[in-house]
Amino acid sequence: MAEAFAALPTDFILDGELCFCDGRGRSDFRALHAEMCQRRPDTSRMAYFAFDLLFEHDVDLRRLALAERQRDLARLCNKVRKEVPYLFLVESFPEGEPLLEWCEHYQLEGIVSKRLSSRYSSGTCRDWQKTKCDGWREANQFRHKMFERRKKPSNEFTERDRALVRKREELALVCRRLRDADLSQAVARELHKHQALLEQQIARARTVEV
């Protein structure tokens, strides 16, 4: 999948999710994790669902309204569908309640509601909200308990941890200073990659397996 995206003549950055689908087309998060642990995973049932377009041809689209980004995303997905057949566009619907009822009927996780006028923002914000189906929440209560048993916070904070935090702060400062500069897409991608790697290292350093 990564090779197919890399072979495209168009440069872009998507926001989406890799999913492993069952026979009815429903995504299964646990099955995806189990399959990725295999030496030869079954990629025939994997799909990448794109729900936002952040960059295209080094143009930052995050300041545009969601409705405009979705329009550009639909155009892009239609353009590259033949080269990347497992790329799917997440459809939008104007009414949330009937969609949530439909998801409940088909035992899906839930829906995400977004403001069409909102700009792109990383992390949690007031412009989007996730609503999970009651049936899915009840059926997956054990997942949260299992996660709590696997990891617990560590009170030890070593000098290496402090060094990682300092690196993260320095890199964050560089990213803020260069955010409005005329960066190439490759440079911006490398900066964000290093920042994500530091976040992972810090998270691993501050948790212990039990």
What characteristic shape results from the CA principal axes? globular
Overall mean pLDDT score? 79
Low-pLDDT sequence parts: 152-157
Give a short account of the largest sheet: 4 strands, mixed
Number of helices: 8
The amount of beta strand, in percent, is 15-25%
Question: Helicity level, as a percent range?
Answer: 40-55%
CATH A-level architecture of the largest domain: 2-Layer Sandwich
Oligomer: single chain
Number of strands: 8
Query: What is the SS-derived class?
Result: alpha+beta
C-alpha end-to-end distance: 35 Å
Order of helices and strands: HEHEEHEHEEHHEHHE
Provide the CATH top-level class of the largest domain: Alpha Beta
Stated plainly, the CATH topology of the largest domain is called D-amino Acid Aminotransferase, Chain A, domain 1
CATH homologous superfamily heading of the largest domain: DNA ligase/mRNA capping enzyme
How many distinct folded domains? Answer: 2
Q: What integer value in Å does the Rg equal?
A: 20 Å
Can you offer a commentary on this structure?
The protein has 210 residues and is α+β, with helices and mostly antiparallel strands. The chain folds into 2 domains: 2-139, DNA ligase/mRNA capping enzyme (D-amino Acid Aminotransferase, Chain A, domain 1, 2-Layer Sandwich), CATH 3.30.470; 152-209. The protein is 45% helix and 20% strand. The protein has 8 helices and 8 strands, in the order αβαββαβαββααβααβ. Strands 1, 2, 3 and 4 form a 4-stranded mixed beta sheet that branches. Helix 7 (159-178) runs antiparallel to helix 8 (185-205). It is globular, with a radius of gyration of 20 Å.
